[in-house]
Amino acid sequence: MxxxxxxxxxxxxxxxxxxxxxxxxxxxxxxxxxxxCFFVSGKSVNAQALDPDKTYFGIYANPIGFLTFGPMVGFxxxxxxxxxxxxxxxxxxxxxxPAFDEANSMGSSIGVGVGLKYFQPGAKGGLYVGGYxxxxxxEYVHDQGTAKETxxxxxxxxxxxxxxxxxxxxxxxxxxxxxxTSEYVNIRGESKPGETAIFGLLDxxxxxxx
Length: 210
Known about the structure:
CATH class: Mainly Beta
Structural class: alpha+beta
Number of domains: 1
Number of helices: 3
Low-confidence stretches: 1-22, 40-45
CATH architecture: Beta Barrel
Radius of gyration: 18 Å
Distance between the termini: 29 Å
Strand order of the largest sheet: 1-2-3-5-6-7-8-10
Number of strands: 10
Order of helices and strands: HHHEEEEEEEEEE
Shape: elongated
């Protein structure tokens, strides 16, 4: 959830992405296996019936982040037609992250987010739409030193949540918003003004309700 405009300018660093090719192939296989296990264990195409008077707790993971800006793990609370969530993003494991600063790798980095969604039940699950806010801190490791940035991302989150009678669910949608870097410190320790950039991020999460 960071500056895509910078990434577009820096895509010329092809060697970085070639080094990520093997991890990308492995992640594709992991996602296919996870989805296969998910549908087999769902046992039914019928949606889980959510009692509007009951509170449901859920945990989920968004593994597609390994290929982009870092995987997410999170916790959800569903009550009626409202879903609240708290999650952690792990930028260190995102294949695209070092390219934002033409870095060799990521140092200590994290994104902490909260969101609130409106959920409209349907035949196989339901539509969801809501808002999301994340605070992020990134460290870009270079040969000459480490650059750092902090900021906040604001996004709309929309998609469809497939529910299964087993309690498992698959969330498919996207985040669309803007990332605002409040501070950037380069490898020489010089502080520079932050930037604002538009971004889009795929939301492909696998989870379970309790």
